[in-house]
Design goal:
The chain is mostly helical. The chain has a domain of 54 residues. The chain contains 3 helices and 2 strands. Strands 1-2 form a two-stranded antiparallel ribbon. α1 crosses α2. The chain is globular, with a radius of gyration of 15 Å.
């Protein structure tokens, strides 16, 4: 392996857990109630995410309020877009 660009590094954060970030119609709902066993965090409900966003009114503060890191921003954005609190995620 050869690294060509050392001026613009990036970090990959990969957490293994039992949380499902998808909501497939064919999956039973109990599969979406997992826990992040590494950090002891649980999956937040849509209502909890929306309430945190209303309280904080910024993505960074919302993630902090939920005790999430930036790796969870996609999930939070999808929920907020679903309920039209932000523009749809493309």
């Amino acid at each position: 392996m050869k690294i060509y660009n050392t001026n613009d590094p990036f970090v990959i954060n990969w957490d293994l857990n039992s949380l499902c970030t998808y909501n497939c119609s064919y999956c039973p709902s109990f599969l979406h109630l997992g826990n992040n066993f590494i950090y002891g965090k649980r999956k937040r409900t849509d209502e909890e995410i929306i309430n945190a966003f209303k309280k904080c009114d910024s993505m960074s503060a919302t993630l902090k309020e939920l005790d999430y890191n930036w790796g969870s921003v996609g999930t939070v954005r999808k929920v907020l877009a679903k309920y039209k609190f932000i523009a749809p995620v493309t």
